[in-house]
Amino acid sequence: xxxxxxxxxxxxxxxxxxxxxxxxxxxxxxxxxxxxxxxxxxxxxxxxxxxxxxxxxxxxxxxxxxxxxxxxxxxxxxxxxxxxxxxxxxxxxxxxxxxxxxxxxxxxxxxxxxxxxx
Length: 118
Description:
By secondary structure, the chain is mostly helical. It has one helix at residues 2-104. The chain has one helix and no strands. The longest helix is centred in the middle third of the chain and has 103 residues, at 2-104. Belongs to the V-ATPase G subunit family.
């Protein structure tokens, strides 16, 4: 009987050791998963920073060229305004004289379709 109890006792101890090994393996697996997750987060952060840097470079190129374009457009607009003001000042007097002569120098004439009805 003692040999049976010793056998049962050995089986229980073997079962306990196996259970302990399983728990230890689960803990190691949990640690490895946690470590892998942390490493992945570090990689994601590095990739995000790299892409953000590339985006900022492209954005600065585009925005820089846009500011240059807006400066050029502003200069062209000012030049065109000055040109139009020059033309206005140059031709204003002659146009006003033409308008005044058309309005004031009227020659009364009878229309060609007018028929006297007497």
